[in-house]
Fold:
Amino acid sequence: MVQPSIYINSNAEGLGKLLVAHEGQKQLTVEIMPGCYGEGVRAMIYEIVKNLLTPKLREWIMPNFTATTEADHEVASIAIMGAMQKSFRHHMEETCGILYGFLLGQEQGCEKILSLWISFQSWERKPLSGASPETGIFWVH
Structure:
């Protein structure tokens, strides 16, 4: 699993046109939940494979035996990321981790929260320095 990665990385210039269509490094970004790095490397491999001219490369490097574990897949994924470092820039963004919430209580309380939320949406919001609509961080006036 590591030997093909070493070969690809040390012969990147000659192999580059056989593996990817783009020149230089292409930025690949995946979103992960906080601390879910194993999930992140698996998602990154999916992004890498989508950009390969030879998608079978994943099957060539990735172990697939009866005793293969998730940890084996994660290690192989990291090896592939290392092999492709001259073709791709790998970036993982951690999301906040709050997928949904439950409001407990009476219906009137939920309606009050909804009304506050609707009024909040009408406020003028100006971004803080370094903040953006993508981050959802605003200074409210």
